[in-house]
Hints:
- This protein is mainly beta.
- Helices cover 10% and strands 43% of the residues.
Amino acid sequence: MIWRSKFFQRTYAHMAAVAIISLLTVSMSFAQGHDPDMVIRDCPNDQGGEPEFDCSDLWASQDIWIRNNNDNGTLHQNPIYGQRNWINVRLTNIRSRLFHKGTLHVYFAKASAGLGWPVSWYNHSINGVLYGDEIGTEDINDVLGGTSTIVRIPWDNVPNPQDFNDADARHFCLLARLVSQEDPMTFPEGYDLGTNVRYNNNIAWKNISVMDRANPRGAVDIENNTDRDMPITLRFTVADEKSAKLLEDAGITIRVELPPKVLEQWKAAGEPGEGVKAEGEGLVINAHNAWIGGIWLGPDDRQTLHVAIGYPDHNLDGEELAAQWDITQHDDATGEIVGGERYDITLSDKQEGEGKIMILPPKHDELSGRFSLSTYPNPISSMATIKYVLPADTRVTLTIFDASGRMVQEVVSNADNTAGSYEAVWDGTAADGTKMPSGTYICRLSTPLGSSEQQIKITR
């Protein structure tokens, strides 16, 4: 996730002056209609202003989306490793004059709190693993005034999620930039990504995770990259009333697991907040506009939260495919939004509609009654037996995660299993043979039929 803590570090006087000059410039340009102006919108309310203050969620551009196939779908999908994916970008010429020529550049970066321009987006590697790079370019020619065009750029080198070893390993951020002498950047680009996006309408940013039954867990980084202590509030909100109703009708539950430092701070402050219920090491979000406060991050401090989406046992047959849910970080010292991440929570189990790949829930039949997972003994001191029951033939992956969501070991890897009952053994070690310390671990069974989780406690 990208949290930008330098979005609004200009002085208010400077911001006001820039805004006034920019608004005057935009107004004159619209009135005269001299030059073409290509826009990649930051949000549905984006009218192409520079700066754009109508969009609070700069990280959720609807004009950028991934498709796993080169189809006409407009729903964002998580990229799939090992195959060609397609980056789609919509550009609109909001003037009346013809736009002649420019080049669209598209980049990816692994979700992180420390992303900056351009270092994080050009051949950026950490310990030999590629964390960011340019995906590709496409020339754009002859876009009539008042019309839009969709550009599709192939993405063949999606990084292997296993290289990142985190609960949100499938999540990559996207950045789109139109470079053109005919329509240059209005404001010079700097390190701060949020400022670049807000002040230039031919730059847009996508930071969205798609959640479904097969992948109901994600990770969120919060960070303070200023040189001062930052008091923060975390807000958990649905994007709109439609999403709120969809989540409620579907019976979806949302849990946010806090890292020990953040949890201790929140409890020491008296658990300030609304719409949340403390449960173990995390929070159950039970309101559509919830928040917690009392959290402080020191300079260069970064903490990771984990999100778990709980799906009901019954099949979801609704026509609506997804609801949108946001986490945002707010700097209480300035009152400004630092950054955020949006989750598209898949609500329909249908395998149709704009090419969307859906995951069917566990099927019930006479064999077992239902899809199930259990472990024994529990707690363990050295070894756990994991039993799972499959109602139909399917592929199975059985993975152990620690409490922070990091993968410990894959016990069963993409095995073809027929319907029936199975047992596997975990010896309480990591993939490299290291003994895992006492604590709570999560055993996750993933199949195309659905998924299930079970806690395993180690006491040594």
